[in-house]
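User: Quick sanity check before I run a bigger batch. Here is a single chain. Can you write out its predicted 3D structure?
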Amino acid sequence: MPGPVVQNRCMLHLGGYEPMRPDRYHRRFERELRRFERTWNVSASLSPPTLSDDGLVASWRITTRGPNWQVETEFRLLRWDDLVAADRARPGWKRVLRGLGALADFVASGAALAYFRTNWRYGLFFAAPIVALAGFAAIALALATRVAHREPLLAPVAALAVFAGLLYWPGRWLHLGYLLDDWSFAADFARRRRPDIEARLDRLAEQLLADARSGRFDEILVSGHSLGAAFLPTLVDRALHRDPTLGRASTPLNLMSTGSSLLKIGLHPAAAWLRSAVGRIVSAPAIYWVEYQALVDVINFYRTNPVKALNLPDSDKPIVRVVHIRDMLDAATYRRLRGDFFRLHRQFMMGNDKRYFYDYYLTCCGPLAFAVAVAAKERLTMLFGSDGALDVDAATAIARPLSPSTREHPA
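Assistant: Done. Predicted structure follows.
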């Protein structure tokens, strides 16, 4: 039976397509950790960030305490923000052309149709930059047509100038440059045209192996958010290839995907290699995998089992949990964020205003073993008193049915 309480945890996090350097990420982490303290009436201390020798892993230590528990968490930010920053540093014209080519690739390959077939909301998210670019082009051509009646030679210049102006604003407000870079990266990743990310995932797999073999932790949790959730099975599959006993002979290994873009890559016909990796992950009995999804997050595949969507053999992995972001936040906060799709998408990594069964910081820094917290479902909030104390007996009762043979698929 897995113990209900952990005292030492290692959490490795793969973020999404966001050029956020470790110092900035650490500041955000500290701000949200303070919210976690207020919500659950606990105390927490946070160390400054440190970088690995090669600068590719940023780490910090969190100590959290309640009246009858204490947890030490080593948090590792598995970096690829530098690769995102390099993409954004390209000349504007190249970013637009590469983005257009990527969107055309997803349409021609049939991946876009698969998005609509699997989850129409995600299909609309894919279509949004295409609609915006088509609208900008139509406006530019309409103006060029009017100019052509008076100064034919100036018409192409006017069209390009208007199109460029619309890309800058309102395209900037629509995050169009970001979206084009994101889809460009996704197409390259699906077709394995990014040797830099391939090398990075190899390096980060070694970090996972080192932590799992260290024997210093009660559990390992690898978290992937957004496009980082597409890297998650890839990274773990590479670690398993190096050490097939991972999670069995070493520290228990848990995976958590949130706001996942796994299907963004996996539904592309060229991504057979990723589908194979996912298949190997779900057939590994020692690996425990949970995915959290939300309706208001248009950047995830709501109410979709990714393994079934990829036409892989039936499996009880991942466990899919639907959450309601409205129930995590104060009413005023939620009203303010409702129109900000990207901020709602990031709520999976933020602190909660209210106690809820999904809380990123409780998962990262709380005393419950991950499998026990997942099995508790909505009962999780009742395991903690108003003073932050944990009801260990109730947690133990939840943990009791989770024998090693059923740990992968708790009720």
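The beta strands are 8-14, 43-46, 50-51, 57-66, 69-78, 219-225, 253-258, 287-294, 319-323.

User: Great, the batch can go ahead then.
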